[in-house]
Amino acid sequence: MPPGNDSAAGRFAIARPRSRRAGISLTPLIDVVFILLVFFMLASNFMEWRAYDMGTPVQTAAAGSDEGAMLVELRAADQGAGVILHLAGERISVVELEQRLRTRLERVPDQRVLLRAGPGVPLQETVRVLDRLDSLGLQELALLPPAG
Amino acid sequence: MRFAPRHRRRSSEDSLLPLINIVFLLLIFFMVAGRLTSSDPFEVEAPESISEGLPQPEIPNLLLGRDGSLALNGEIVSRDKLGQHLAPLLDGEGPAKLRLRADGRADTPEVVALMEELRGHGIERLQLITQPQRDAQP
């Protein structure tokens, strides 16, 4: 400790070691902060998940009879991407299916629709069809396992 | 005369201050905005959807990979031992719920078959996890 706290010269004498103490290098701090930053960048997840609430297929299929339900079949396209939709055995486009369902829903608001995907149809395609049918306001929409 | 060295030292630190500011801001952003989650044991690309429903966080999470591999709550399980692993997770009250995150490239009949199997294990409500569309489609 330098002597003479009360003199002006003493004040200057104290000021130097104090400023040296305050002058700890910032580099270790930056190192640590960088490591923390890299850790949080790598470990954190920005994924936003959404969900479709569904009963399991057997449950929904067993909940009511299949009487009066519309069965939409999804089949894999022979070549290229996409799926082919079949309604009651005939090929139909998504837009056409939407129109038919819309007119049907005006008369029968609780129309059940069953969706059956054949082998080779990726889940993404099924979800895409599910999206379009769901946005029509269907109350009963079920996924069915393939026949047989 | 005394100010000269102090000023020189400060200027070398001053040049670092904007860097530290930015790094701190980035650090706080990632700490606040990101969520720390354990990484998946295998890659699962959830199907894109316009669904607005939000998944429930506190229910068991089942992953279905493109090749049919399964992981329950982050641990890989084999298909035939699934029920065994699922049973202790389902003793809560209310309907048994499960989040299913299946790969969008997986075959739909396989996913539906798994859903049926889950039903057989006592799952009553299932949430199919999707992700918002990355590029809006017309």
UniProtKB/TrEMBL annotation, chain A:
The transmembrane segments are 22-43
Q: Where in the cell is it found?
A: Cell membrane
What Pfam families does the record tag this protein with?
Answer: ExbD (PF02472)
Q: Provide the topology term for how it sits in the membrane.
A: Single-pass membrane protein; Single-pass type II membrane protein
Which UniProt keywords are listed? Cell membrane, Membrane, Protein transport, Transmembrane, Transmembrane helix, Transport
Q: Which family does it belong to?
A: Belongs to the ExbD/TolR family.
This protein is called Biopolymer transporter ExbD
Q: Which organism is it from?
A: Aquibaculum arenosum
Automatic annotation (TrEMBL), chain B:
Membrane topology of the entry:
Single-pass membrane protein; Single-pass type II membrane protein
Coarsely, its chief localization is membrane
Give the keywords, sorted: Cell membrane, Membrane, Protein transport, Transmembrane, Transmembrane helix, Transport
Q: Which InterPro entries is this protein grouped with?
A: ExbD
Q: Which residues cross the membrane?
A: 16-36
Record localization: Cell membrane
Stored PANTHER family: EXBD MEMBRANE COMPONENT OF PMF-DRIVEN MACROMOLECULE IMPORT SYSTEM
Family, as annotated = Belongs to the ExbD/TolR family.
Question: What is the protein's given name?
Answer: Biopolymer transporter ExbD
